[in-house]
Amino acid sequence: MITINKKRFKEHFRRKMNNLYAQTLEEASNEELFNVLCYVIKDMISKDWEGSRIYQEKAVFYFSIEFLLGRQLKSNLLNLGFEDTIRQGLNELGIDLDEIVESEPDPALGNGGLGRLAACFLDSMASVGISGHGYGIRYKYGLFEQKFVNNSQVEVPDNWLINSSYSWETVRPNRALLVKYEGKINMEKDDEDNLKVTHKDYIPVMAMPYDIPIIGYGNECINTLRIWKSEIPTRDFGKSSSYAKNQAASYEDALKYKYYAEEISQTLYPNDSNYAGQLLRLKQEYFFVSAGIQDIFRKCRRYKITTQDLPNKIAIHINDTHPALCIPEMMRILLDEEGLSWDESWNITIKVMSYTNHTILCEAMERWSEDIMKKLLPRMYMIIEEINKRYVNDLRKKGYSEEKVKRMAIMYDGEIRMANLCIVSSYSINGVAQLHTKLLKEEVLNDFYEEESYKFNNKTNGIAHRRWLISSNPELANLITKLIGNKWIKDTSHLKELEKFVDDENVLNRLEEIKFNNKVKLANYIKENNNITIDPNSIFDVQVKRLHAYKRQLMNILHVLCLYHEILDNVDLELDIQPRTFIFGAKAAPGYYLAKCIIKLINCVANLVNNDPRVKGKIKVVFIENYGVSLAEKIIPAANVSEQISTTTKEASGTSNMKFMMNGALTLATLDGANVEIYQQVGKENMFLFGLSAKQVLDYNKYGGYSSKDLYHSNKLLKRVVDDLVNGFIPGLGKEGREIYDALITYNDEYFVLRDIDEYADAQQRISNLYKDKIKWNKMSLINIANSGIFSSDRTINEYIEDIWFKGCDEDVQNNII
Ligand SMILES: *Cc1c(COP(=O)(O)O)cnc(C)c1O
């Protein structure tokens, strides 16, 4: 058990400051104080971290190209149970813990939901106590920092590695590995007629591991997130390759080589659910996959795990298709290094691999050209080709039409389809919410579902309630514990007991007071950072998430314009409008022009509305710069309304919807993604639903029948706001308005913004009406919190453990081994 004693902590803290910086506490900056505290905590956990490395049970390795960790200090203190002691100890040293918390860098090694999910899963794997570890990339630059200049997004490099290091990490040079690119593959038969494969003239890149401890809640379990940095090989490795030696020939070539290697872990691709087709991206994917799989084999050899026993000892999870090369890489090691036959290698591989699909957007489906794969990763290409050949043969043997074989093939028309590779080679394929999984089964992956239905399952996403409630909303967490005891912290299903208080006015008032306090805190933040004054008595109506057309921030801001017109039309009437603050936070991928136009529109509308005296502060629009995990932790506890308004069928799950619900916001939503599960928990009377159903959207997509032009011409109010985009009504908006207008009218409004906006406005009106009845509102808020327990990622992880990782592959899979 890791324990802490205030006196010893203070001594340790002083000593560490002296060791690291040779200065007194008084001389230290907040950043230095953070570093010292971080090292003190690492010292305290080091024994348990080492101990967790011993593999007594099955280990899970979660491969993800993104881990959006956020700050670690508070969540580590919470999980270790140290917060109070350390706060007091620091206090006695004249140091404020909250200030140190704010000086921690926020590692943004992810774009949005997918990366954040991976981080929540790490927290939950450690907290439920399994040996579950992450593999990823240590990007030198994470997601860009967003600034607004003249209302437009400007991207600034994110320099999270101040002085090239991060205090939570530990670098382990003795565990560096070599990843091989390009070159030629040689196949020879040896004397005993065994095929011997050698990789010649490759370009070697060294993968240097950096370990970050992942601390479980109250259980001594400390797992590891291992992220790899790319470098040119050090001398020991260099000897093994002729390439490195040749590069030493000229200084210029040596520099080129250094650039080639270091570029790989240089930057995170800032695309969110867009397929990045660049060669560098493929290098990145193979880089962390090859290092990770080699690392797993090294551990297995050390613990004398036989290849046959691998499926009992390890589970490898592929988070979306970016780590799909785990499959051929594992095959490569089993075939070329372990000397197993194809069938033996295949039977092991498909009992180890499981895969999560995260999106049905076509543009996000990864495909690589065969030529690129062949040149960059020749051995991977050969193995994928063989997997495909055997699979396609099998399909043909079953008598399927060529059309169907074409659709299901892994390689077709010069391209490699990574999702198909994952489906064919995994024992489990899961979607991330009920509707999403249903769409996978019935639409997008229907061919595969008909073929191997037993592989498909749903795992509705979840969130780390420790970070998203306990740590970010301590007042609410304390109230809950006061009311129902603390069992809910380990098992969130106990939150349900809050329903007992649904008619208790004291509790409801206290709930309102806590929300109000959080709103005041956020208002202060916005005053300081955006210099906008907002009224904590207004409804805080929040949409924070990546900017994407399918998420429909556009519908939200067009509705704000409608309200603005309504106020202007009735300027003399003193409309009885419930005051509202519309809060946005969103980054757009730098190359996604329409998304950037929408950012500009929101900023321009904000200026227009916020500065018009006729509005009398009834509505305000605030776009908070640089949305990320740390901001989310401030914004979400302060929200009254959670905007989850994606075009139905497009949002696979969403997770911010869960964060808001757990913090007592009411959800304004389409029945998309995990909003369906929220609806199942609280019923339509405790949320605000609107919009096209999944079936209606699918039918429009299949059979047509939607014309945004017709709507535009038949609905005057709609026409007015759409015309605002291009008639100069919105100062500062230029050609961006035309771009948006064209998306809506010329290109027939792909995401049904104009089709859904009337119903959306009605739902917003219902919200305004309800907010007047504070008791009713607070009741609904309480019911939402009480029923948010299933959205803890502990629940999700327990399902992965039971149905996927520890169950391994079931008999159906075993019987269907090719
Ligand atoms: C939770 C979270 C997301 C995901 O938001 P969605 O609304 O589900 O897309 C994105 N970014 C950050 C910083 C988050 O914390």
Automatic annotation (TrEMBL):
<dbReference type="InterPro" id="IPR011833">
    <property type="entry name" value="Glycg_phsphrylas"/>
</dbReference>
<keyword id="KW-0328">Glycosyltransferase</keyword>
<protein>
    <recommendedName>
        <fullName>Alpha-1,4 glucan phosphorylase</fullName>
        <ecNumber>2.4.1.1</ecNumber>
    </recommendedName>
</protein>
<comment type="similarity">
    <text>Belongs to the glycogen phosphorylase family.</text>
</comment>
<dbReference type="GO" id="GO:0004645">
    <property type="term" value="F:1,4-alpha-oligoglucan phosphorylase activity"/>
</dbReference>
<keyword id="KW-0119">Carbohydrate metabolism</keyword>
<comment type="function">
    <text>Allosteric enzyme that catalyzes the rate-limiting step in glycogen catabolism, the phosphorolytic cleavage of glycogen to produce glucose-1-phosphate, and plays a central role in maintaining cellular and organismal glucose homeostasis.</text>
</comment>
<dbReference type="Pfam" id="PF00343">
    <property type="entry name" value="Phosphorylase"/>
</dbReference>
<keyword id="KW-0663">Pyridoxal phosphate</keyword>
<comment type="function">
    <text>Phosphorylase is an important allosteric enzyme in carbohydrate metabolism. Enzymes from different sources differ in their regulatory mechanisms and in their natural substrates. However, all known phosphorylases share catalytic and structural properties.</text>
</comment>
<keyword id="KW-0808">Transferase</keyword>
<dbReference type="InterPro" id="IPR000811">
    <property type="entry name" value="Glyco_trans_35"/>
</dbReference>
<dbReference type="InterPro" id="IPR035090">
    <property type="entry name" value="Pyridoxal_P_attach_site"/>
</dbReference>
